[in-house]
Amino acid sequence: xxxxxNLWQDKYGGDEQNPSxxxxxxxxxxxxxxxxxxxxxxxxxxxxxxxxxxxxxxxxVEHDRSxxxxxxxxxxxxxxxxxxxxxxxRRNHTSADPGMEIVVHRSGIDPPDLRNNPRDIGSSAIEQxxxxxxKRTGNRRKASGSFKDTELAKLRIPAHSADESSAxxxxxxxxxxxxxxxxxxxxxxxxxxxxxxADRATRKSIxxxxxxxxxxxxxxxxxxxxxxxxxxxxSHDERxxxxxxxxxxxxxDEDVSFDESENYSRELVDINDDRTxxxxxFSDEHGNLKAVNFVIHRPCTIFSFLIAICLFLTLLLNIxxxxxxxNGNPFTVPVNExxxxxxxxxQYDSLRLARDEVVESRKASVYDGQTVLKQSELADVAxxxxxxxxxxxxxxxxxxxxxMKDAYDIFYQDSGFKNYCQLDYRAPLANNSSxxxxxxxxxPLLMYYPSxxxxxxxxxxxxxxxxxxxxDLFNNLALCVIRGLYCELVPNITFQDQVWAAQLGGMxxxxxxxxxxxxxxxxxxxxxxxxxxxxxxxDIFKGLVDFGFDKGFSSENPVSQYSRGVVFWGGPLExxxxxxxxxxxxxxxxxxEKRKEFIKSNYLSDMNNQANSGTHRTINSYYFMTAIIGDxxxxxxxxxxxxxxxSFIFVFFWIRINxxxxxxxxxxxxxxxxxxxxxxxxxxxxxxxxYFATLNSLAIFVVAAIGADDIFIFMDAYKQSQYHPxxxxxxxxxxxxVYRRTGVxxxxxxxxxxxxxxxxLITPLTSIQSFGIFAAVVIFIDxxxxxxxxxxxxxxxxxxxxxxxxYGCCCPCGVQSPTPTEKARFAxxxxxxxDMKRDRVSEFFRHRVAKFVQVPFHRLVFGLxxxxxxxxxxxxxLKLEPTKExxxxxxxxxxxxxxxxxxxxxxxxANDDLGLKVYYAWGLEExxxxxxxxxxxxxxxxxxxxxxxxxxxQQCQSDLLAFCDDLKTNPKYKELIKRREGLGAVYCFVEExxxxxxxxxxxxxEYVKKGAFKNETWQVDxxxxxxxxxxxLAQKTCFDEEGIETIGSRYSTEIGWDGSSxxxxxxxxxxxxxxxxxxxxxxxxxKEYDQFVQIASEVDDIISTSCGGNVITTDLDEKFVxxxxxxxxxxxxxxxxxxxxxxxxxxxxxxxxxxHIAFFASVSIICVLISVIAVMVMLGWFxxxxxxxxxxxxxxxxxxxxxxxxxxxxxxxxxTYERITEAFGDxxxxxxxxxxxxxxxxxxxxxxxxxxxxxFGTFLCLTIMFSWIFANFxxxxxxxxxxxxxxxxxxxx
Length: 1293
Fold this sequence. Notes:
Shape: elongated
Largest sheet: 5 strands, antiparallel
Helix content: 40-55%
Structural class: alpha+beta
Distance between the termini: 52 Å
Radius of gyration: 44 Å
């Protein structure tokens, strides 16, 4: 048994707090134990200690060393005097370890019995280690002129008196004296008595020849005979190596004498005890972490337990969340997303919640038992969108027109379509026919395929309308002359003008009455297009033509590059008696499934062929339909998910390449993936947060990037520990160092990232709050799993797989002996004074990158580049604006997105388009928000409040009707309120209620539309409302072109009847600019909103006086609240990002305690923030919901790399350049691997069709790249330039 067989058991004093100090000590020179020995060596004779440092080596010893040096140089060693002797003496005492042995041998040669022992492993490495030691000690002897050829320090038992001790101490070297004094002070204070020291000083001295190794035979056995993976490595602590610096040269040729007293073994134990420290809550007496010790003792048990916990929590999540979710969807439907304290959202919920409450209350009394006719209601629509490929436009050639008609013929040429289309109940049944026809599609092709065409009439109309004065005159007279409405509003009307307007209106009506797409294509298509360009200027006929032509189409430019059309699908598929809401929903769902299957089996193939770009030469066709759009989106999501899976596959293989272990790669991917369900369980079950936003799915990409970074940091620290000899005493010491080193760095980055995500809580938008909290929990769980599960996996890897990793062994192959830690130590010893060569990437960062940054000229170039770029970036970043249009859902080149984009951007709001309904309601108070927390209860928006003194009296009715007439006819509202047939599109139930109160029914719609009831007493007595309203709600409205819509359906929001009383009354008007389907720029919406609010303020004083209560002005399509959201996006992005930077600075300052490091690291984060925003602007992005979230979390993403380098720089020793070298050498490869993983993993997201993922991939790539560049070449260059020194102790600020 020789020296190196015991080296792994030395704790090197357990000093984990100052690894850099300990790194100056080599394996061959353990000064801590030497100090302990020197402290106990109270005496040798003064003559034996004086002038020892000047004594020359004895000839025989010098000859013996020459023998070994000759052997190392390849010379013949036969001339050397092989005088090696082996001595062993075993002492067994009841008060000490009965297996304690003293092994003494010379020249570092193993005793024959141990050398030949089959358990004596690693002998060749040991012999190389011994030779290297002799070379080093010989070199030191030559340099100092003193005799220091011993392998270990000579152990001395304290002398017989304090006088001898002081005499001996006087002859020691100054450093030894200092160490001895300090050790004696520590020993005295710990033991509390010097008497015991004196007693031990009386024991007999023991002189060791060259090597003295104290070890426990039982410990040796326990080390070599490890039976399972939970082996007790703490037995290593029972071995110790002694320092060669205090070896007594007089003992070279002396035999070893032993004290026979029974206190001897206790003295040896005392020597070991002096090397320990007091244990604490987290560390043991050797300074190793207790948690690490526990993991090393039971790695497989802990590993299995952690895996089981992850799987168990995932199972519970499935039971408690997924199985109880509606339709199996655990995500919260993203509706009603707004600031609940904003005035827009308050008014929105005041009306919405009141509407829902009264509709539910009156449903049983009004709607139950009513029959809904077969296919009488609109159940779905199929949109066709066309794009011209020629400059003549879509209507410039018969070929293009016929190509568009082919799209509609797919349905209308099929007899089965009648069973699913919306039936036309307006027209009377044909003779001898009991079946109704399908409603005609809404398309301009109706005029190109009329049942008949009169070219003369068409030419006469065109000529009349070519004169702009005629158009203005006709628009002024049409309501009165053609419709017979509001003639009192047309002053100075002449009979001649009336006749002319009537004749022109009659001709136009005759022409348009034949537009049914039942005939052949008109031969003179140019005349049809020209007529349409003039009719679009006529108010009452505009709605017949404006829907299908783009916004560039006019009489001056009769060319339309885009067109659109709608095919109507009806429901229910059979006559249905209305019942409960749940029953109707089930019936609608059943009809929807039948409709979808019918379309997929009969039409979908033809629709795809029509939309194929190669089908038609002159046009491109696009379609979408609600029934099948879900399948389309699902296919897109599946395709994008496959791309996202590639990202995870790359992460897996990159972890495998860097860890060189399939086992660690699988565990790494496992902990990354299972961070999601574990965090989800905590988020939903423990925190009881029920709002789980769709944005939360981004967390999987967040944790993939950050989790991989943490794995690389941990694994690289483990690899680097093999180059620190003071850490290779045992696995506990090594892993404690790795745990401390990585735990602090990753804790800083994880805390900063979590804080950055939690900064999203400052936004009032619940979906963003939910994402921020969930992402923070995911990052925290990932950190916990890395420090527990992955740490345990590394211990198992060390014990079982590491030596066989290069062969691909990934199954339990048994505990390895010698362990990789022992092999690493042997390699260091064999390498001698030469530095061990590390992997090429680490060496590149240590010697190339670090040196490159240290060159002043290079830093100057960096500085110039950064200044120029940041100037441009700041200029571009300041141009960031809120979104001005609908946020694209898909890639702009996807057919579905193209059709949506064309619809949103290429068409004005047509007469047949639904405009945004803006409501003016009286009788409501603001909603009560008491107890509302949408994170905990997404369905709770508050409680509606009603005005107690609301009175729908005669005066209130009159004022409401006057308000309706003003909205319809006032010219100043022409650009604000949509016009239909020359009148404003206003929903005014009062006029139909008035006619019903007089007539008792609504069969005479002309009486209603012309307002003939105004000449009579039409007001309803409030006391009669309970008798009138129920029957009134069941009447067919006069303003439905299909003739099937009821009053209760048309005015479901306007009439606040709850079955017993009228709780509120409302009037609605359609916006001419805003649509309920799309989003526009905040400035556009705000302009319209301000005008509608101005109207409310003008009439509220009048109506509120007669009706009671103040007006509530809102829409129910969330356009006004989204307008406010757009403003919130800007504020939240700025506030969250700057708050994230501030938090990062505070965390850095607290962790490093160095102001300039925290400050410059924060500046680096700010540079990343500005740079990413600048590139977003350059890419044409606007500040929408996705961009706002991304900007808010930039600080959290960009902090990792600079924090790792800052922490490595702060803990390193030496001057600035030495610290930079150490920082790059230790963490350069980790940061690089993290950057490569995140960037490459983000690349597949660039090709996703869902913009949600595509933008996140771009953002992730930009943030990571800029973070890496600024951290490595910006932050480190500033530190290298300023060279601000760091204090080793005390306040470092």
